[in-house]
Design a protein that fits this description.
Blueprint lengths: L1 E3 L2 H14 L3 E6 L5 H13 L2 E6 L9 H6 L4 H11 L3 E3 L3 H4 L19 H4 L3 H16 L3 E5 L3 H13 L5 E5 L19 H7 L1 H14 L5 H12 L5 E10 L4 E2 L7 E9 L2 E8 L11
Parallel strand pairs: 1-4, 2-3, 2-5, 3-4, 5-6
Antiparallel strand pairs: 7-8, 7-9, 9-10
Bound molecules: pantoate.
Length: 290
């Protein structure tokens, strides 16, 4: 596996593949890799001849300096996992090159995709994500890039940006991977103690109970949101950042849910922010909810 740091080396690596007619898939990450990331690499391997993984904790997408400082960093283990997963290269750019002194260019998606949920809860977040993803794609120039469905709004924003800017990469979204207890895999889960994790399980459990209620005929969004809140807010140290029913048709908040809707939520568990969602017409989340 090639380990690359500079933009120039990453560009040379990609140009060589382009010249040789090698199809390249790209998995951008912020490291602290887990099985969810590895499922993206696995998916990427089915879509191309070689896979590049980037590991870069992008400072411009953090609205909270403490969250950035506490973001888990496990580079040596990440490199091992990428090697074992069959990545052909790992690129670990650094901030001095990504955002040199005087840097002043940003990419922003406006409209319904970025006026709710994480966009409101984390001002500037998607501007940072879009900026870094544009820069990463501009250097790697992959045929295809794979993102996780857990970050649904991010995947939709990036797909939109990629199309609007004619970046020419195919964007593929791969399913959320969950631990057996139902918690969606996230690098932030590394910050949860067993007690915090027990509280965090209220999130998938609440979403699943609301999904079941929808399937049983409850279509009032407020009632579905209440089900999630009741499951979560009984625990001390748990705060709801947002919980909303959003239609994938137009990404609009829906007063009444239908099969095109997802129920999405973000919570703080003793200060650690976790997000998750469930498509209301989708499969059950495997939780103990009886
Ligand atoms: O999902 C992530 O890990 C990040 O937002 C991404 C897409 C790598 C951009 O920094």
């Amino acid at each position: 596996m090639d380990e690359l740091t500079s933009i120039a080396d990453m560009r040379t690596w990609s140009r060589e593949r382009l010249k040789a007619g090698t199809r390249v898939a790209f998995v951008p990450t912020m490291g602290a890799l887990h099985q969810g990331h590895l499922s993206l690499v696995e998916k990427a391997r089915t879509l191309a001849d070689e896979v590049v993984v980037s590991i870069y904790v992008n400072p411009t997408q953090f609205d909270n300096p403490e969250d950035l400082a506490k973001y888990p960093k496990t580079l040596e283990a990440d490199l091992e996992l990428c090697r074992a997963a069959g990545a052909a290269a790992v690129w670990t750019p650094d901030s001095a090159e990504m955002y040199p002194d005087g840097y002043c260019t940003f990419v922003e998606v406006v409209g319904p995709l970025t006026d709710k949920l994480c966009a409101v809860a984390r001002p500037g977040h998607f501007r940072g994500v879009c900026t870094v993803v544009t820069k990463l794609l501009a250097v790697v120039r992959p045929d295809v890039a794979v993102f996780g469905q857990k970050d649904l709004q991010q995947a939709l924003v990036i797909s939109r940006m990629n199309g609007d800017l004619n970046l020419g990469t195919e964007i593929v979204v791969a399913p959320t991977v969950r631990d057996p207890d139902g918690l969606a895999m996230s690098s932030r889960n590394k910050r949860l103690t067993p007690a915090m994790r027990a509280k965090a399980l209220g999130l998938p459990r609440g979403l699943e109970l609301a999904r079941r209620a929808y399937r049983a005929g409850q279509i009032t969004s407020l009632k579905l949101i209440e089900i999630v809140a009741e499951e979560l807010l009984v625990e001390e140290g748990v705060d709801m950042d947002y919980c909303d029913v959003v239609s994938l048709k137009g990404f609009a908040e829906a007063e009444h849910a239908d099969d095109a809707c997802v129920l999405a939520a973000a919570v703080f568990v003793d200060g650690v922010r976790l997000i998750d969602h469930v498509p209301l017409a989708g499969a059950a989340i495997p939780v103990k909810a009886d």
